[in-house]
Amino acid sequence: MQTILVNELRQRYGDFEAVGGISFEVGEGELFALLGTNGAGKTTTLETLEGFRNAGSGTVRVLGHDPYRERRALRPQLGIMLQEAGFFADLTVAETVDQWRRFTPSPRERDEVLGMVGLPQQTEVRTRQLSGGQKRRLDLALALLGRPRVLFLDEPTTGMDPEARHATWKIVRELVADGTTVLLTTHYLEEAEQLADRLAIMHRGRIEVAGTVADVVAGQGDRITFRVPDRVPVSDLPTLCGAVADIAVESGRAVAGYRVQGLQASLYELLRWAEHHRLELDGLQARSASLEDVFLHTAAATPEGAVR
Ligand SMILES: Nc1ncnc2c1ncn2[C@@H]1O[C@H](COP(=O)(O)OP(=O)(O)OP(=O)(O)O)[C@@H](O)[C@H]1O
C-alpha cells in the first residue's frame, strides 16, 4: 500500500480549475516535494490530502483512508504545517505548546519538541514577538507533537535565515530516516534538491515533470553560455552540434546561451569556431542542467494565460 496516493485529482473554485487531473504516489518513509509556480495548485492539493477539502473528482488516499470522509481516524496520524501559522498572539511559546498537547493523544513532551526545532530558549516569549522564522519553527513543533506517520509541510522554511533552514532540513532528514513519510511544498529549489527522494513540478494545475532530481534533470541538456564578442553580429554565431544560440541581455551585454546534448563535442565546435575567428570568449561557462533550468523551462513552456 502506498502511504499517499493521488489519482486523477481535480479541484475547482467555481469555474476555475485549480488542479487539473494530477496523479502521484508516495511510499512509506519517502520524502516527496511538490514544486511549482505561484498558483500552480500545490496548496489546494495539500489541503485535499490533509482532509480540509473533498476531492472534486479522482481518488485521494492517505494511509489507505479517504482523508475527507475518514478524517477522524486519520487525523491523529498526521502532522500538518500550514502555510500561515494561526497562533494566539498573547500566549507564550510554552502556553501554545501546552494548549496543543491537550488535544493530542500521547504527545511529545514540550521540552522535547521545542528542543527538536531549536526553540528551547523561547518558552516565555509571546508568539507575536517571534520572528517569522521562529514562528515557522513553532509551527513545525506543533506538527511534530503527535509523532505523526505522515507529515505535510507547506513551505516550511519560508522566512527562515540560511542557518535555520539548514537546521530544519536536518530535522526533516532525521524524521524521514525514522520512517516518517513527508510531503512538502517549497519555492526553494535547493530545498527539494537537498531533501526530496522524488519530486513533481506543477504548473497551472498539472504535473509537468516528476521523478528523482536526476530523472527530472536528465534529458534537459547541458548549458553553454558566453558574452557575444562586440565585433560578432548575432546572426554569425555558430550552431553547436545543431543547437542554435538563444540571446539574452545581461548588464547591457548580449549573452549567447546554448542548450546542447553532450558538452564535450559542442565545446570543441565552439572553441574551433573561436580559434578560427581569433576571438576571446568572455564569461564562457559550460555546465550540466540544474533543477532551476528545468523549473524555468517548465514555467516558460505554458505561460500564464496561454491556451494549452
Ligand atoms: N478559495 C479559493 N477561491 C478561489 N480561488 C482559489 C482559492 N484558493 C486558491 N485559489 C486559486 O487556485 C489556484 C491554486 O492556488 P494554490 O494556493 O493551490 O496554489 P499554490 O501552488 O499553492 O500557489 P503558491 O505557490 O503561490 O502558494 C490559484 O490560482 C489561486 O488563486
Automatic annotation (TrEMBL):
Subcellular location: Cell membrane
Keywords assigned by UniProt, alphabetized: Antibiotic resistance, ATP-binding, Nucleotide-binding, Transport
Membrane topology: Peripheral membrane protein
Residue ranges annotated for the ABC transporter domain, each copy included: 4-229
Domain of life assignment: Bacteria
Classification via Pfam families: ABC_tran
SUPFAM superfamilies found in the cross-reference section: P-loop containing nucleoside triphosphate hydrolases
Any single biological process term in GO: response to antibiotic
Official protein name in the record: ABC transporter ATP-binding protein
